[in-house]
């Protein structure tokens, strides 16, 4: 890709400057084509100074995810064995679904710096400013479709564990897969699936984590309930390290799931902040209020209503009414 090549040449220049003519001849393109690439590099967040008699000079580099460093230090068997980096994606889930349809390998990960059409659960959008993590991973488990929700719970457990390890802060999970720090949402997961009859063809596990963004990037109504890792710890977090940790945790949890799917429920329970709480669950079928007392083998939330009956909820939004005593 020309942009990367130009950046390499600018970084390795002894004087700091590289002339447009030199870039054009090294790349084998016209000077106008070089200029267009320079403009594209600036749009990616780099600062480039152009001095007529000297050429171009790199003045500032954005804080980007370092994919080469990530690849070289990654200790996983399946997850992240292919990584597609898209600086600006519409939605990493959409890119990953397209790659999966074209037979991309299991474990392929799509990573973006920002999304223009980020998707959230229940048809909502996911505001995706720069400074956060946007990741989607392709899975091809040989399990029936009704097991798919377990993979989302698995992803939530892996993400919460990775945040704990990388940021040294307690992250929990609110059913089904909201990642919380100090009661505020710091991340979420969206799973999309392609299936035939009762067989999963592929699943895309989409993970969004608010890492270093300014909270003011969120609309008021979302900001009240949200947070970022940096806002909670008081310091920016290296996103490359967090991403590596998430991929490694996903790899470990996915292997455990394939060996014994009950491992997901064990991991999820250990991190959840929902069970034992009085909750209101609003879903497609209306609202349910009661005690969240268990999740079943398919990941549904079992709510004990005040009349003693138990209702299994497959999808919805949980509001926690009371803290655990
Ligand atoms: C939620 O509503 O809590 C789920 C949010 C999931 C967001 C992630 S960001 C990466 C991936 N791409 C998307 O468009 N959505 C998911």
Report on this model:
- With 325 residues, this protein is α+β, with helices and mostly antiparallel strands.
- The protein is 33% helix and 29% strand.
- The chain is built from ten helices and 15 strands.
- It has helices at residues 2-11, 20-27, 31-43, 67-72, 92-101, 148-167, 220-223, 229-233, 239-259, 262-271, and strands at 17-18, 47-51, 55-60, 83-89, 109-115, 133-139, 172-174, 178-181, 184-196, 199-209, 278-283, 286-295, 301-304, 310-313, 317-320.
- Strands 4-5-6-10-9-8-7 form a seven-stranded mixed β-sheet, sandwiched between helices. Strands 14-13-12-11-15 form a five-stranded antiparallel β-sheet, with no helix packed on it.
- The chain is elongated.
- Biotin is lined by residues 91-93, 115, 118-121, 124, 126, 134-136, 178, 188-190, 206-208.
How are the secondary structure elements laid out?
Blueprint: H1 2-11, E1 17-18, H2 20-27, H3 31-43, E2 47-51, E3 55-60, H4 67-72, E4 83-89, H5 92-101, E5 109-115, E6 133-139, H6 148-167, E7 172-174, E8 178-181, E9 184-196, E10 199-209, H7 220-223, H8 229-233, H9 239-259, H10 262-271, E11 278-283, E12 286-295, E13 301-304, E14 310-313, E15 317-320
Parallel strand pairs: 4-5
Antiparallel strand pairs: 1-3, 2-3, 5-6, 6-10, 7-8, 8-9, 9-10, 11-12, 11-15, 12-13, 13-14
The structure holds biotin.
How would you concisely characterize the structure shown here?
The protein is built from ten helices and 15 strands. The protein has helices at residues 2-11, 20-27, 31-43, 67-72, 92-101, 148-167, 220-223, 229-233, 239-259, 262-271; strands at 17-18, 47-51, 55-60, 83-89, 109-115, 133-139, 172-174, 178-181, 184-196, 199-209, 278-283, 286-295, 301-304, 310-313, 317-320.
């Amino acid at each position: 890709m020309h942009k990367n090549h130009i950046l390499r040449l600018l970084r390795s220049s002894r004087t700091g400057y590289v002339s447009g003519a030199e870039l054009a001849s090294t790349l084998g393109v016209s000077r106008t084509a070089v200029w267009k690439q320079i403009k594209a590099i600036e749009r990616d967040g780099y600062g480039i100074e152009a001095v007529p008699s000297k050429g171009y000079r790199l003045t500032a580099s954005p804080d980007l995810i370092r994919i080469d460093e990530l690849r070289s230090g990654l200790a996983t068997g399946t997850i992240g064995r292919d990584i597609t980096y898209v600086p600006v994606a519409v939605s990493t889930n959409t890119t990953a679904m397209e790659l999966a349809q074209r037979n991309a390998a299991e474990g392929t990960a799509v990573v973006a710096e920002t999304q223009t059409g980020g998707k959230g659960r229940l048809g909502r959008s996911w505001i995706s400013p720069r400074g956060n993590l946007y990741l989607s991973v392709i899975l091809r488990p040989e399990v029936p479709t009704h097991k798919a929700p377990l993979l989302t719970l698995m992803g939530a457990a892996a993400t919460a564990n990775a945040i704990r390890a990388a940021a040294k802060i307690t992250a929990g999970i609110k059913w089904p897969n909201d990642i919380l720090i100090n009661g505020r949402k710091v991340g979420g997961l969206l799973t999309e699936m392609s299936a035939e009859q009762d067989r999963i063809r592929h699943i895309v596990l989409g993970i969004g984590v608010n890492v270093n963004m300014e909270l003011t990037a969120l609309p008021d109504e979302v900001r009240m309930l949200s947070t970022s890792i940096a806002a909670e710890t008081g310091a920016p977090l290296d996103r490359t390290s967090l991403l590596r940790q998430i991929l490694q945790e996903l790899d470990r949890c996915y292997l455990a799931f394939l060996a014994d799917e009950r491992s997901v429920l064990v991991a999820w329970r250990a991190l959840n902040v929902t069970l034992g709480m009085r909750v209101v669950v609003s879903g497609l079928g209306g609202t349910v209020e009661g005690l969240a007392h268990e999740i079943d083998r398919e990941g549904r939330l079992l709510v004990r209503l005040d009349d003693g009956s138990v209702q299994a909820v497959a999808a919805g939004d949980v509001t926690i009414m009371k803290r655990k005593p």
